[in-house]
Amino acid sequence: MKNNLKNKFESKIQPARDEIKDLILNHGDKVIGEIKLSQIYSGMRGMISMVTETSKLDPEEGIKFRGYSLDELLHLLPTYKGGKQPMPEGIFYLMLMGDLPTIEDVELISEDWKKRSNVPDHVFAVLDSFPKNAHPMTQFSAAILALRGDSCFMKAYNEGVRKKDYWSSSYEDAMNLIASLPIIAAYIYRRVYKENKHISPNLNLDWSGNFAHMLGFDDEEFHELMRLYLTIHADHEGGNVSAHSSHLVSSALSDAYLSFSAGMNGLAGPLHGLANQEVVKWLLQMKEFYKGENPTKDQVSKYVEKTLSDGRVIPGFGHAVLRKTDPRYVAQRNFALKYLKDYDLFDLVSKVYEVVPPILNATGKVKNPWPNVDAHSGVLLLKYGMKEYDFFTVLFGVSRSLGILSQLIWNRALGSPIERPVSMPTNIIKKKLI
Ligand code: HAX
Asked: Ligand 1 mean position to 320 CA, how many Å?
């Protein structure tokens, strides 16, 4: 089987370049949105200000990857032999190529990533130099930077590559980085929590299965969970903090390593990807508060009220764009209904799902009282024995590489410009208005 993904991708570039050139030429002066003063002071909510091809978030319908809803993709993407969950290789193909992969396309990506999964010794030495209590996301981001010595793009750039060919070496960087992330993440996990006892890759497995194996989990159900997990966290259009920060950094022609590491620093914030660890911490604290008993709905309500009156947010609830229950939450709930029915923490998550939205609604200020992806992911991992919840955002990060890096390849192919919006001090804004 010949791996012609790169050639197939190349054939998509010129038509896409022509399409955008034509759009700008014929419609470049058209207005497609207006900016209100309040948006400038509220984190640019609702402003159309960048182009992302890989996925689009609809407030009501949730994420769509190249036009397909998550629910559709859970049925349409190829699955691993005998399994039911989609393989993340498939969503990567879809985001990069714009159309659905065949099983052969997915297997070719799996094979390609296996061949590319090389992490030089100095990266492990960088990780070994961290104190074990350094947050796993700090270690993850630093290791990605340490890998950068291998950047094909920087080498090509230093050798004077032409702008129209930037995409080719960026493609190599993106594929090499995606292939290597599970090794780095598993190394961090085993070093910090499993007495530095590392597990060699099993190259008979797919990307997710091998990752689960290197983490130390060989239960096929956990492998299926990993496939689901790494698929549903892959992308959430371009405006979220991790995708946007990667996009911004890469617009300066910083290579894939610099750009992706920047995105991971954003993902590590508690209002974004770190929320998955915060949810588990909060659930366990609630259980402890009720002396280890599984709280009743009434007790959950009281705990939620207490969290709010302490001036804290309810982790895993709310969203800057979504206005309904996150379809990624629903996908995980369906997995739990199948495999975790009698698990006490799933029962608690279900009670929280019933209790929190009306309480958040009653505050009168929360725009979306419904759960997001992070409200559910942690308990699934706990159930299979992965208890070290400060590692969970690293798993999210490994998945997010698929969306961020497929878009980075497109940005290079389309010659996306350096990003440089305008900022203003309040006194000038006032002068413009009054
Ligand atoms: N609990 C309590 N208060 C909340 C809340 C929550 N879950 N969600 C929003 N609010 C509050 C905001 O803090 C804000 O209060 P102030 O006006 O006093 O500042 C008010 O409601 C309006 O906020 P909003 O417009 O509804 O929400 P934002 O777009 O400003 O913020 C957040 C969106 C996701 C950051 C927010 O809902 C939040 O903090 N949620 C909890 C943390 C979380 O789950 N983050 C993960 C989000 C998904 C993600 O990125 N995953 O990686």
From this structure: 7
Report the helix count and the strand count for the chain, using DSSP H and E.
20, 3
How close are the terminal C-alpha atoms of the chain, in Å?
Answer: 67
DSSP-assigned letters across all residues of 278-341: HHHHHHHHHHHHTTTSPPPHHHHHHHHHHHHHTT---TTB--SS--S--HHHHHHHHHHHHH-T
Ligand 1 pocket: which of 41, 245, 313 to mutate (most atoms within 8 A of CB): 313
Distance in angstroms (rounded) separating the CA atoms of residues 102 and 360 = 43
Decide: 273 in ligand 1 pocket, CB within 6 A: yes
Name the residue with the closest Cα to ligand 1, atom 38: 318
Beta carbon of 268 within 6 Å of any ligand 1 atom: no
Give, using CA atoms, the residue closest to atom 48 of ligand 1: 272
Number of compact structural domains in the chain: 2
Report the distance separating Cα 86 and Cα 101, nearest Å. 11
Q: Which residues are known to be catalytic?
A: 272, 319, 374
Find the domain containing 354 and state its range.
275-383
Q: Is 320 in the pocket of ligand 1 (CB under 6 A)?
A: yes
Same domain, 140 and 16: yes
Same-domain status, 250 and 230: yes
172 with 78, same domain: the answer is yes
Across residues 10-28, what is the average pLDDT? 98
Helix (H, G, I), strand (E, B) or coil at 372: coil
Locate all alpha helices (DSSP H) within 58-102, ordered by sequence.
Answer: 70-76, 88-97
Average pLDDT of the chain? 97
Distance 318 CA to ligand 1 centre (A): 5
Does residue 191 fall inside a structural domain?
yes
Give the span between the Cα atoms of 144 and 146, in whole angstroms. 5
Query: For residue range 401-418, what is the model confidence (pLDDT) as tens digits?
Result: 999 999 999 999 999 999
Q: Is residue 304 within 6 Å of ligand 1 at its C-beta? A: no
- If asked whether residues 226 and 288 sit together in one domain, one would say no
Instruction: Tell me, yes or no, whether 416 lies in a domain.
Output: yes
- The answer as to whether 133 is a domain residue is yes
| Residues 367-393 pLDDT 10s | 999 999 999 999 999 999 999 999 999
Q: Element (H or E) spanning 352, and its range?
A: helix 344-362
| Model confidence at 126: pLDDT above 70 | yes
The reported pLDDT for the residue numbered 432 is: 87
In 149-252, which residue ranges form alpha helices assigned H by DSSP?
Answer: 152-158, 166-193, 207-215, 220-232, 241-250
- Tell whether 221 and 355 lie within a shared domain: no
Nearest CA to ligand 1 atom 34: 319
